[in-house]
Amino acid sequence: MDCVVFGFDEGELKLLLIERGLEPFKGRWALPGGFVRVNETLDEAARRELVGETGLKNVFLEQLYTFGEVERDPRERVVSVAYYALVKLSDHRAKAATDAANAQWFPVSKLPKLAFDHAEILRMALARLQGKVRYQSIGFELLPEKFTLSQLQHLYEAVLETELDKRNLRKKVLSFGLLVPLEETQMVGRHRPAQLFRFDQKRYEQLRKKGFHFEI
Amino acid sequence: MDCVVFGFDEGELKLLLIERGLEPFKGRWALPGGFVRVNETLDEAARRELVGETGLKNVFLEQLYTFGEVERDPRERVVSVAYYALVKLSDHRAKAATDAANAQWFPVSKLPKLAFDHAEILRMALARLQGKVRYQSIGFELLPEKFTLSQLQHLYEAVLETELDKRNLRKKVLSFGLLVPLEETQMVGRHRPAQLFRFDQKRYEQLRKKGFHFEI
DNA sequence: TCAAAAGTGTTCTTGATACACCCATGC
DNA sequence: GCATGGGTGTATCAAGAACACTTTTGA
Fold first, then answer.
1. Count of CB atoms within 10 A of residue B27's CB?
2. d(Cα B81, Cα B181) in Å, to the nearest integer?
3. Alpha helix (H) ranges present in B105-200?
4. Residues 6+ apart with CB under 8 A from A200
5. Separation between Cα atoms, residue B134 and residue B155, nearest integer Å
6. Is B190 within 7 A of strand C by CB distance?
7. CA A144 – C1' C21 distance (Å)?
8. Could you tell me if B8 and B112 lie in one domain?
9. Which of the 76-115 residues on chain B come under 7 Å of nucleic strand D at their beta carbon?
10. Long-range contact pairs involving B200-204 (C-beta distance under 8 Å, separation at least 24)
């Protein structure tokens, strides 16, 4: 099992990598991963690995694809079920960054060369993320609990690698009625403070059962 | 590996099932499947199984999901990579139906009880099919090479389980410029003969590379 | 001449896009 | 008072949805 862990911080999409201590690919960066035990499900294995590497519980986790090329591991035949995870990195930055000494967050735009077929796994995870973020609420899994509409816009711009119109995006996301304005504002820098919102997950689930279809 | 094989015939979406000859679930119907060999990829295993059961080459095949519940096979721990396939059933009806004595096509609306967790695998395959058919050209994989617009409409109606407006659907699919009208017409029953079309796969690939986005 | 499916246009409504200025704050 | 990002509305255009009658054939 391998796990593509995405975070969003400082306006950039980031990826968690582990520096390999053993051959093959010793010293190269790789996706966190490990072997599935006989008495645990695939999901449980992915979540166990995730907790081990990041210390984070309650993160979004979804199966991505299963990679079964015969020569993908030079040692022996290994089939790998890949997952991808979305973590609220800016809420847990300090913790997540330091838990594993050999783990590090890289901007997706500036990655080192990866071990095994992990570049291909990442490519697929990015494609999935870009596809799903437009019609599911998974974007909010990457934002802190309380966020501003500018943060939301920057997230979409980073993931989709495009520029978006501020007014049109705000109009659309607010029209869903899923963002709850909070009492607080966020004050950073010498300019007007920004309204904070939270995403109403419960209401989203209700609407989705009634056939509601979210789209950015 | 398990394989969800869909066909479309007589206006209905159909599923290929195998009657199990051995325990567990002896006598119950199951998805075609088998074990992946050490020196073949997952895709190769799925295609090998598909050729064995249907005798069909060149069918659409895509990985669906990997099922890893601990108790999904009562004998021992088995992880299964599920695929789904789309076959042009009406082109090959006679051949496909008789190749394997214990194989049979069932309307998706009238299925027997399935072995193992195959009902869940099917549920997921149906969801995938319903999702993808709207924005990819996979629908044509279920139609014969030459088809009428009514057949196309009935296919979408069967897969999506809705009714569609004849005029709006024709307007939209023809607007893509991907359906080539043929010289021939199809004459069935005592009414006006229907224009036959073929899907221009090459042109579709070209457009897709340029960012073209198909949607029903 | 009748039954049965094939084929064809227009109107209305909705949502997408494009676009420019004022506001609140810290320095 | 000025630099910085936060916040807001309207006009235009394109696509989706709703809708009914004529055409061609075989029996």
1. 10
2. 39
3. 118-133, 149-160, 166-175
4. A178, A179, A180
5. 12
6. yes
7. 31
8. yes
9. none
10. B201/B137, B201/B140, B203/B177, B203/B178, B204/B137, B204/B178
Verify that B156 and B73 share a domain, yes or no. no
**Could you tell me the distance in Å between the CA of residue A216 and the C1' of nucleotide D21?**
40
E strands, chain A, in order: 2-9, 12-19, 29-30, 60-67, 80-87, 103-107, 179-186, 194-199
Tokens of A17: 């990598």
Mode of pairing for the β-strands spanning B2-9 and B80-87: parallel
Is the shortest CB-to-strand distance from A136 to strand D under 7 Å?
Answer: no
The answer to whether residues B73 and B173 belong to one domain is no
Phi and psi at A155, nearest 5°, equal -60, -50
Q: Which residues contact A128 (CB under 8 A, 6 or more apart)?
A: A64, A84
d(CA B146, CA B152): 11
Domain limits for position B76 = 2-132
**Per-residue pLDDT for A93 more than 70?**
no
Residues B37 and B128 in one domain: yes
Which of B108, B13, B20, B95 minimizes the C-alpha distance to B54? B95
**The model scores a pTM over 0.85:** yes
Q: Which two tokens stand for residue B137?
A: 């050209």
Give residue for tokens 């050729």.
B51
pLDDT in tens, A55-77: 888 899 999 999 999 999 999 99
CB contact under 8 A, B68 and A36: yes
